[in-house]
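A common beginner's mistake is to predict each chain separately and then try to dock the pieces by hand. The better habit, illustrated here, is to supply every component at once so that their relative placement is modeled jointly.
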Amino acid sequence: MSQRKKKGEFIVERNYVDDQRIIEPEKLEIGGVDMSGRWGLLVLPRTIEDFDHSLHAMVKNHPRGRNIDRCWQCGNCTAACPVAEENPLFNPRYLIYIIKLGYKLEIEKFGNYVYFCGSCGRCSEVCPKDVDPSGVMEAIGTALRRKP
Amino acid sequence: MYQRKSVKIVRRLRRLNGNGWAYHGLPGLQWEIENSSSYDRKLMSELTRELLEDFRIHEFYHACINCGNCTSRCPAFRFADFSPRVVVQKVMHAKSEPDLIVQMLDQYIWACFQCYSCWDVCPAHNNPGGLIAMMKELAVKHGLQSASKALEPYSRVLFKLMTTGTQITPDMHSSIAPFRDWGPHKAELVKHLREERAAVPVENLAKVMDRGWNVDAETIRELLIIEKEAGVIDAVKSVLKDVGEMVDETRAEYGVE
Amino acid sequence: MRRRDMSEIHPVLVIGGGPAGLKASADLAELGYDVVLVEKLGQLGGAPIRWGYKTLAPELRPTEEVMGPLIEYVEGNGNVRVMKNSVVEGATGGLGDFTVTVRNLMNGATESLKASAIIVATGFEHFDAKVDPRYGYGRNPDVIGIHELEGMLKEGRVVKRNGDPPKRIAFIFCVGSRDKSTNLWCCTVCCGVSIKQAIELKHLLKDADIYMIYMDIRTFGLWEKLYWKSMEEYGINYIRGRVGEIYAIGDKLLVKGEDTLVRGPFEVLFDMVVLAVGMEPGSGTAQVARALNLKVNEFGFLEPRHPNIHHDSGRDGIYLAGACVAPMSVEEALAEGSAAAMQVAKALRRLQRAVVK
Ligand SMILES: Cc1cc2nc3c(=O)[nH]c(=O)nc-3n(C[C@H](O)[C@H](O)[C@H](O)COP(=O)(O)OP(=O)(O)OC[C@H]3O[C@@H](n4cnc5c(N)ncnc54)[C@H](O)[C@@H]3O)c2cc1C
Ligand code: SF4
Ligand code: SF4
Ligand code: SF4
Ligand code: SF4
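With all components supplied together, the output reads:
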C-alpha cells in the first residue's frame, strides 16, 4: 500500500492518472545512465480502442435487461436514485452506457458498483423510455457474474 | 451532497477499489470536490474573482456547447483523466460556483502541456489552453503549493531564463549534470555538438552556445529591471523560494534596485 | 371599363426547380397561371433527385412518391415552360411587369422575358467537407458524405473502396455545422437523415455495427420517431462526443474523439465514416441574390423582410421559398413553395381587379 502511494508521486496531476497505467522501473540503467524510479517513468495511454459488446448481448438476453437499447442517456434514473444521491460513484445511467458501448476499461473500474443498487425501482418509475433501469441493473449484475 | 456520504459507504468504496483503479476511492472530479471543501473560502472567491475579471477571459471564452472537440485533440487527455472541455465548462459555471476554479488549481490544470491544439478546433473559438495558462498564472501569483510542485523541476531552466533571457542552449542537453532529465541518448548527441552546430550554414546556430551564456551585462540589467518592476521576481519567490532568492542576488550584483 | 383577364397577365417566373420551386410552379399552373421555371441544372427535382435520395425521412417512403408526380405534372402541364440549364441574369420593373433576362448555360444565348411576379427557390448546397481538414474527406475514399451515401443506398450497394462491405460504420454529426470556423447554423435535417440512412444500412448490411457520434440529436417534431426506432429496433449505437481527427491506417480509418459521457478518449478503427454534412446557401443562391439585388443575411441565405415571414423578400413582386432562406426539410420546402404561390396568386388577383381603361 505504502509503495503504491509513492508510485508516480511527483506527477502533479497524480489523482487523475490510473495506478495501473504508471510504469516506474525500480532499477533501470540505460547506456550507463541511471534511469531508475521517476527518471524512467512511463504513463500508458488510457485510450478506448475497441467496443466489446459481449456483456451487452448478455444483458439484452436477460429477461429484465431486454430494454437496455432504449436508453438515451437522459439521466432521469440517476436523478431519482437514492443510492446515487448518497454515492456519486453509483450511477445507473452511466452503467447502462458503458455496458451498451462495451467500454472495457470503464467496466473494469466501475462495473462492480452495480451491486450498490437497492432494487427499489424508483428509476424504473421515472424512466421516460421504459428501459426499466432497475431490471437492467439486475441483468448487468448477473452478466458480470457469469462473464467467462 | 458529497459530504453526506456515510463512513460505511466510504469504507465499502475503498474495499471495492482494492485494485486502485479509482484513484484513492474517488475518481477524478469527485476527488476535487472533496479536496476543495477544505479550502479557505476567502481565498477561493478571491481566486475566482481574479480569473473572471481578467481582460483575457473575453477573448479566451465565449460559450461552450460541451461538444468535446477540444478534448478529442488533447494530448494530456490520453494519459490523465483530464479534459479541456471540463475546464471550460467549469469556467462557464464559475460565477455561481466559485469552488469550481479552485478545484482545478491543485492538480487538474497541471496536466495540460499548453500545446493549444484545443484552441485550434473549438467550434466556438474558445481557448481552453489559454484559460488554463491564466489559472496557472494565478497559482503562481498566489504561491499555491501546486505551482511549486509543478515548477520545481524547472528551477534551473527558470533561473537561467530570468538571468540571461535565454532558457536552454544545446550544450545543456547532456546526460551529465545538470540536465540528466533529457535522457541518456543526449550523451551521444552532445559529443560532437560544437562541430555539428558549426556545420549548419546558419550563423546563429553555431554561436548560440556561447551567446546563450555570455549575455551582455546591459541586457541582463534591463531584463532584471523588467522582472523586478513587473513583480515577476516576487511571484517566483512565492513558489520557488530558492530560485527567487538567487535571482534577487543576481539583481543586487547587477545593481538593480 | 373592364377587369383584366388571365391572358393579359404575364407568366410567373420561378427560379429553381427543387421541391419548393416545383410545388410553387405546379400550384400556380393549377390555378391557371402561366409559369416559366428556370433551372440551373439539366434536370428538375433539386437535391433529392440530383443526389438520388432513396427515401425520405421520417417514414422512409420512396422519394419518387413525392417528387415523381410533381415533376410529371410540371413537365406535362401545358402552363409551365421549363427552361433547364439556365439562369436569370437580371430583372427590371416591378410587380405585374418585370422584364427578365435568362441565359442558357449550354449555348450562352440570352432571352428576354416578361414576368408578372418572381418566386426565388434556389435552395442549398451541401457543405464541402474538404474545407474542414480534420475529417480527411477527399483524401480517403472511405470517408463519404451523407449525400454520397444516399446514392449508394439507392443503388443497393454500399461498399468500401476495395469492394468489401463495411463492417463497422461511424456517422459523424454536425460536419460543417455549428462551428465558428465553418458554418454557425444547424442544418436541422442531418440528424434525421443520418439516422434514416443508418436504418437503411441495417436493412442492407445486417451484421454491420453502426455508431452515431453526435453532440445533440436534433430530430425535431415527428422525426423524433426515427431516433427512437433506430435505438429500440435496430440497435444502433450512440456516442456523445465530437471527432477531432481521422487517420487512414491501412484500409481502415482511425477515428479519434472524446466520449463526453465517459470523459474517455476513444481511438477506434472503422471501415467507413459517413459525414453528416450541413447545408449552405451555395453559389446558386448567391448568383440569384446578385442578379435580383436581394438582401442576404450574415450567413449568405436570402433575408426576408421579417425573419418569421419567409415568403416576403422585401422587394415588391419577388417572393422567397425553401432552403435558400434557411435550412429546412422537404416537407417544409413544399409548404413554402405553396405559400409563395399563394402570395403570388393574391397579388395578381389584386392586379386583375385593377381597372383597365
Ligand atoms: C516555447 C519554446 C521555447 C524554446 N526555447 C528554446 C531555447 O531556449 N533554446 C533552443 O535551442 N530551442 C528552444 N526551443 C526549440 C526551438 O524553437 C526549436 O527546436 C526550433 O525552432 C525547431 O526548428 P525548426 O526549423 O525545425 O522548426 P521551426 O522553428 O518551427 O521553423 C519552421 C519554419 O518554417 C516555416 N514554414 C512552415 N511551413 C512552411 C512552408 N510550407 N514553406 C515555407 N516555410 C514554412 C514556419 O513558418 C517556420 O518559420 C523552444 C521551443 C519552444 C516552443
Ligand atoms: S432500483 Fe437501483 S438504480 Fe434504480 S433507483 Fe433503486 S437503487 Fe437506484
Ligand atoms: S431514465 Fe431511462 S432513458 Fe434515461 S438514462 Fe435512465 S435508463 Fe436511460
Ligand atoms: S493546450 Fe492543454 S488542454 Fe489544450 S489540447 Fe493542449 S494539452 Fe490539452
Ligand atoms: S471544443 Fe469548445 S465548445 Fe467544444 S467542449 Fe471544447 S471548449 Fe467547449
